[in-house]
Amino acid sequence: MKYRKLGASELEVSEISLGSWLTYGVGVERERAIACVNKAFDLGINFIDTANVYGRGAAESFLGEALADRKRDSYVLATKVFFPMSDADSGLSRPQIAKQIDASLKRLAVEYVDLYQCHRYDCKTPLEETMQALSDVVRQGKARYIGFSEWSPEQIEDAFAIPGVERFVSSQPQYSLLWRKPEKEIIPLCAKKGISQIVWSPLAQGVLSGKYLPGAKVPDDTRAGSAKMGHFMSSWLQRPVLEAVQKLKPLAEEAGGTLSQFSLAWILREPNVASAIVGASSPKQLEENAAAADLKVDPALFRKAEAIVAGVEPSA
After folding, report:
1. Partners of 28 in the β-ladder
2. How far apart are alpha carbons 150 and 54 in whole angstroms?
């Protein structure tokens, strides 16, 4: 495993990180989930990403148990705040941030998280209030650094224009060969601001593994075939997308890796990316994905891949 510095922070994170959206505490049985966490450490993965809303606290609670016997300085832990935890609890107001960080720390069974992220932008709360509340969390020792997910360039600039508050060190965008929107504005802006990308859905929810075939029945033992985990995947399973993905397989073979590894290596070609977050339902799957950090790919193959998928971006 290789490691990269996370923005202007002192954190060194593994190029492949372990995520918990729709999986741990929700869609993957506990024994297999524990095995995945243990395998992550065996592979040198030190960065684990979650959110309070994943399973309405279930993912955090699971990780609190799974990490209980490990030294706190042996891993980098990130969580998020914004989405509803109840009918009365959501957003990025000062009271909500204060309440939700304490609840997350309790579920995670830790005294601090390394990275506390705004899961989205809160248009109902003044940005100054949000940034001051996040700064309080850092200054109280409950988080070391702060980040955001899916903010616009204007929102990022506005946050940096507020004096006397903590600065963001991370951005968590959706980014993959099939979803390249961050390249236009977010990545260049963040590179100037000392912000690194932590990429979610780098495999387009598994579509870039090549396991979903055009016109074929979705396999039952996959995310798309799961009643608990497959409800966000319809846009990725469009026939033009799946046909283009199949055309990528020879390029991955030429590079000496699987299509998943090739697709993750494409993400890691970008210097502003610190880590690609992968979800894993088995240790074997995680081992395959982690190997992407060591895959050396001729840039010409990446250019061919980009040409193949050009114009087939899903509508999600």
Report:
1. 24
2. 17
pTM above the 0.70 mark? yes
Tokens of 63: 């990780």
HEC string for 9-70: CCCEEECEEECCCCCECCCECHHHHHHHHHHHHHCCCCEEECCCCCCCCHHHHHHHHHCCCC
Residue with tokens 């081992």: 287
Tell me the mean pLDDT per 10 residues along the chain, length 316: 97 96 78 94 97 94 95 97 96 98 98 98 98 98 98 98 98 96 98 98 93 73 52 73 95 97 98 96 93 96 97 70
Domain extent, residue 20, equals: 11-207+270-293
In the chain, the amino acid numbered 219 is P
Taking the C-alpha atoms of residue 225 and residue 208, their distance in angstroms, rounded to an integer, is 16
- Within a domain: 59: yes
Catalytic positions:
54
- For the CA atoms of 304, 310, 314, 316, what is the dihedral angle to 10 degrees? 100
According to DSSP, the β-strands at 143-148 and 113-118 are parallel
C-alpha distances out from residue 217 to 206, 212, 224, 286, 315, Å: 15, 8, 10, 24, 22
Question: Which residues are registered as beta bridge partners of 113?
Answer: 143
Tell me the Ramachandran region of residue 277: left when phi exceeds 0, alpha when psi lies from -120 to 50, beta otherwise.
beta
Number of domains in the chain: 1
Judge whether 48 and 39 are in contact, CB under 8 Å.
no
Indicate whether 5 belongs to any domain.
Answer: no
